[in-house]
């Protein structure tokens, strides 16, 4: 049974709020990286790579940035699924994603069973 319009509106609103919050966090992390890596262009004309000047703090910031960019991508995909009419259906098996799971992770494309199966290590390699 498809999700009712009111529920979809609620999820769209929640996803938009998450998008705004995570987008702000991404911007903050990018600013932090710029502050941590201040390369003085007058020191040398040799090209400088971020890895040459990045310290542990920058490495941690880059990890956070990758994670938050991934979450933003998942939120955008969930908003597209709302537009396409497939939001709340598992991408793998096609079953409905439980309301409890969507409440906890509104951008999830998988039901709990498929998410758990995708986390299992590959066997017989």
Low-confidence stretches: none
- Helix fraction, binned, reads 55-70%
Number of strands: 0
Which secondary-structure class do the elements indicate?
mainly alpha
Quickly count the helices. Answer: 5
Order of helical and strand elements: HHHHH
Provide the β-strand percentage band. Answer: under 5%
The biggest beta sheet reads: none
N- to C-terminal distance: 39 Å
Rg over alpha carbons:
20 Å
Overall spatial form: flat
- Mean pLDDT value: 80
Describe the overall structure:
This protein is 63% helix and 0% strand. It starts with a helix and ends in a 6-residue tail after the last helix. It is mostly helical and 125 residues long. The protein has helices at 5-36, 50-53, 56-84, 99-104, 112-119. The chain contains 5 helices and no strands. The protein is flat. The longest helix is centred in the first third of the chain and has 32 residues, at 5-36. The model has no long low-confidence stretch (mean pLDDT 80). It has a domain at 5-89. α1 packs antiparallel against α3 (56-84).
Q: What labels describe this entry?
A:
5 helices; single chain; mainly alpha; flat; 125 residues
Entry summary:
This protein is mostly helical. 63% of the residues lie in helices and 0% in strands.
Write the layout of secondary structure elements.
Elements: H1 5-36, H2 50-53, H3 56-84, H4 99-104, H5 112-119
